[in-house]
Amino acid sequence: MSMLPYLRAAVRPALRKSAPVQPCYDPTRDPSASSAVVDCAVYRDGRRVQGDCLTPREALRRVREDGGFAWIGLHEPTEAEFAGIAATFGLHPLAVEDAVHAHQRPKLERYDETLFTVFKTIHYVEHAELTATSEVVETGEVMCFTGPDFVITVRHGGQGSLRSLRHRLQDDPELLARGPSAVLHSIADHVVDGYIAVAAAVQDDIDEVESAVFAAPAKGVARGGDAGRIYQLKREVLEFKRAVAPLLRPMELLSERPMRLVDPDIQKYFRDVADHLARVHEQVIGFDELLNSILQANLAQASVAQNEDMRKITSWAAIVAVPTMICGVYGMNFDHMPELHWRYGYPMVMAAIVGSCFAIHRTLRRNGWL
Fold first, then answer.
1. pLDDT at 28 > cutoff 50
2. Is the whole-model pTM more than 0.85?
């Protein structure tokens, strides 16, 4: 920690005087207000510096004069709202464009003395019953600009609020004193913990579908009716996979590659996050493979049920063919036919029909066709 003042002095960029003044953040305001800035604070020695509400420019000025770091949180800023902050902190235009327009893959990029990290947040959508149109997971995004003396978080989507995370960090001054890299680690840990919770909930949905597929069908319900639910769940798992898989490489870099902006002591904690992320990734891959097997089993059961129906139809057609054949023979309009004028001809024919049908039915039933 003793090297941080020298590091700040070496990488300190000049403030841009042309940057427009940002609207003052009021900590007591309604979170649903239209301003993109949801919080702006200065932290020194692990504690939030109390004082009047700050603009991002004022927060950075105090940090450069008195030490510490600034943490600015934004929610879905527009280009105009983010332009002043980007100019004040010297953020790269490409990273700013990604942060404003969102819909990015999880990634880690370095621009001069700033790390730009993108996280996909996942929220499990509660539902009373899984259907073919149920939304299982909802995604959002958290972008994090990490500099030597500032952290800027940009959140997109209705989920993944960082307010509770900020409060937890403020209750742990020893960790927060490690600087911006401690905030970056806490955000990564918060996002991955969300993945773990969602994975457990998705596992319950998969178990429910699996039980329904292999359970005995209710009377009057045909096999194969769960295909829509399985396919929808598979689509949601694919969305989950798109959030988890690309984050593996950034977590590997943060946990293994030395970086000037990441405290070496904090880097050890990134290894734990990377390990948890790898476990979730293995779970998601397993979900995908299991759903493939369940879907194939469901389709196979539907095919077997159709084959059984065809066997029953064929069996009854074979039984009906006997009286049809006999009646067809004796329905011919010939004057000279054997047994046509015999007194017991009709009873004998009916007995032959009933006996033949009974024998065929018994044989088919014994062989499992009926």
1. no
2. no
